[in-house]
Description:
By secondary structure, the chain is of the alpha/beta class.
Amino acid sequence: MKNFYHLMIPVLLLLVQGCASVVQKPVTLDTGFWQDRKGVIGVALDPLPSPDTYFTGGAVLDGVINATRAQPLTERLRSIDTKRAAMIAENMAKQLKARGFTVTQLAESGILPASEWQTPATPDVNATRDFRALKAAGIARLLVITVERIGTERDYRGVTPLGPPKAVFKVKGELIDIDSGKVLWMQREDASMPIAEPWDQAPDFPNVVNAVGRNVEEASMRLERSFFGAQNSTAR
């Protein structure tokens, strides 16, 4: 029974996200940000999800069957190193410091739990979480990295796969003005990568692990560059 509930989690998450997700448009960082070095910038990483196998298509029961069949791959993915994903926040903090900003890196416990804003907020303009408690630590702006998904995704019609799995990595970065909750920058990387054949190489799945790792590396670099790109293109 425990394994049944464990396998149900990614399936149910896909269904909930498909029905209730809100499309949040990217927000470009104003170039004036690079001249405003007043105040402390907090940099934080939300808790990383465990690498997993994800499935699209089919009913809930189909998803449970597909998840059961994919259990050897799921177990292998759960053991892979997610260090590169965790390094995004650290890398961005270092680059901000190198550009003359005062930066404080926060542990997960430093930003969580954060309450939701009590007033209506538009995701394109305002953060959904209220971080004003961080003002007591002198933090004026908060850069948050949120990894939403690491692993593989496979399309199905019922219990029939429509093709091989692909590596997936979903990550979002937000720069938030603490006092107002305004989103100053937001970029999302929804990256996927084909897996070289043969992919079904139990128990180690080397081609899958390699593709997942390369996908995380490349998407992480793109997210980092998207934040610093405006400053890099501005004449110093």
